[in-house]
Records
---
Amino acid sequence: MKIFKRGINDKTVYGILMVCFLWYMLHITIKSNVIPGPYETVKRFIALLPGVLSMHLLASFGRIAAAIAVSMLLGVPLGLWIGMNNRGDAIISPIVYILYPLPKIAFLPIFMILLGIEDLSKITLIVTIIIFQILIAVRDGVKEIPKELFYSVSSLGVSGVGIYRHLIMPAVMPKLISGLRISLGISISTLFFAENFATTYGIGYYIMNAWTMVDYLDMFSGILGLSLLGLFLLTALDIVERKLCPWIFL
């Protein structure tokens, strides 16, 4: 808990206050229940959180966490391999360059037909977004390591797994975390879309269901929950970065 609190710094508090100020100004300018005020929304959010809202947030968090885990298990080893192996890079990278720019969200109907309408199709959709970020970040991180460093660690008697532990992974880690940071925002947006199809739990479903019911206060409570979910994930990633890459903060 203390570690997480350190991730919530003054800049985060400043950002929250500024967003709430702009939100309130928009509320009093429009003068419509379409955009409820921050106070009313936070009050409603606190009331909903222990019950229905927490279930939707946990469902969404579970899908993103599973997608990140699968993407890491597949993307990191593959990125290390093509980063260290020029022939592997020549085989894999052209395929990545063709698939990476494609709007993955268009494949959701195909995933739902092949994998079913439950969580597996939605997690797979997010994986297809995150894994390319991870793969490219890891590959580039390996290729940017000067050859002289490999010679240096070899001269010290380090080889095999030791090279990965003491040289490659520390060099790759900052790029890997940056890639995850970028892909998280895209993944949350994609999840919001995916949860509108054949889903009964998920913050995306909750927001759109409140919109169809013309319950704008609940809708904004869901949007607030989605924002806090993103803030939690990014803050957790910042904490991981400080633990695994302390040298970049010196």
Note: The mean pLDDT is 86.
---
Amino acid sequence: METFSVHPIGVVSGGGEDPAHLRINPEYRDGLRGLEGFGHAVVLWWAHEMDDPELRALTDAGRPYVRLDHDLGIFATRSPLRPNPIALTVIELAAVDVEAGLIETPYLDANDGTPLLDLKPYTPSIDRIENPTVPTWCTHWPQSIESSADFDWVAEFRF
């Protein structure tokens, strides 16, 4: 198998209860031109806190959700525990400053200091599925990011 390398384009700053900022490295800031016209973006980030050989070897996710009656494989979850700890989040673009290389978003599920791998504009013609199919155990989950904010996610997971 051929090896390859990935180069972070920036880093996450802040987050949690406060808005998150995506700080884009100077050599990539020119790539932000035109992004300010979009309302949302897809962020690919490296779950660096989960980047461990043992965690990368996991393929069985067990039963992470309360309503499950069977085990899941890691590829049937959004867990950051993966062979390559690549995570994906759709964010709202609250502000884009091309010159400063700064993007502000109200919410991003990555921690402060998380490496950013890529940004792509969210476009409904490519990214939106009108009638997605999901397993029975998660059909009660919200149908959008917006309604997801008020959903009791804590009640869904086994901790």
Note: The domain at 10-122+129-156 is CATH 2.40.30.70 (Elongation Factor Tu (Ef-tu); domain 3).
